[in-house]
What does this fold into?
Amino acid sequence: MEEVQIHYFSGTGNSKNVALVFAQEAKTIGIPTEIIDVAQTNRLHISQPKSNALLVFVSPVHGFNYPPVILHYLFRFPRGRNQVVLMNTRAGMRIGRWITPGISGISLYLSALILILKGYHIQALYPVDLPSNWISLHPGLTRRTVNFIYSKILPQIRTFAQQTLAGNKNFWSVRECLIDTVLAPIAVLYYVVGRFIIAKTFYASHDCTQCGLCQRQCPIQAIKIIDKRPFWTFHCESCMRCMNNCPKRAIETAHGTLLVFALTFSCLFSFVTYKYSYFSPINQNGGLKFILENVLFLFLFLVFYRMLHYLLRYKWFERAVVYTSLTKFNFWRRYKSWKIQ
It folds into this structure.
């Protein structure tokens, strides 16, 4: 090994921090290191890595898998024979003095398979339990909790980096393969349906000052400005950078609106398919019904989101959406990661 090349994708900073810590350990022992932000790279024309470079990939887990931006990057990655280290950052939480581990799902295994088929050799698969930042589902962790988790996990990352740079193998994550395999169907559903639905739950309230920060900072340029307000496209990876970094806390998740739409759609779909006899073949075929329901839900939700974006211009409607969004309330904190120098 004469060089370390670290490829990372990061939303709120956890995966970037892991990449920086790994790079620090490599530089400490005199190994030249290159850090590559996947979001800032031309992903259609990826340079061939040097044959003697150790390749490290770091990314958060989204829906029990690597986010599509990383998966597509790996699919396009040139063939090679290098040693590869795959790492993920997943949702760690705190209970007392314990850090509850997140779940990697198929992220490490699928990525390893892609790279093995390209000729690479896997040296390590390593999950990192850093503070959960998915504040659409839960309030942001307190600063005290974030500091606690980082203080416990950073030394582990450094130790892992030192051992890996010394040539040791590490397949600790394989111990969790049973639960990871069980969650594989959810990972697939998230990739084909779930991520698009989540991308359409974000909106900007009237607190938005049109500063454009969310659009400029979006790592994959998934935010457009329509009607002078941010509009989230299907490219959104739900990395939470926009919501966590908005200086006015104007970006919210439409919890109540999504619930109303989902319940209404479910009731209407069930009523129509059972009311009319020509839908009997669909009801008798569970797989067909499941596919049709999800495709129809996604299509109608896209139309609904466009309507939602339009109606937010009316104060009464905007207030109704805002006050049924949990992210509006002060107890629903935003997430701030550590800053690794």
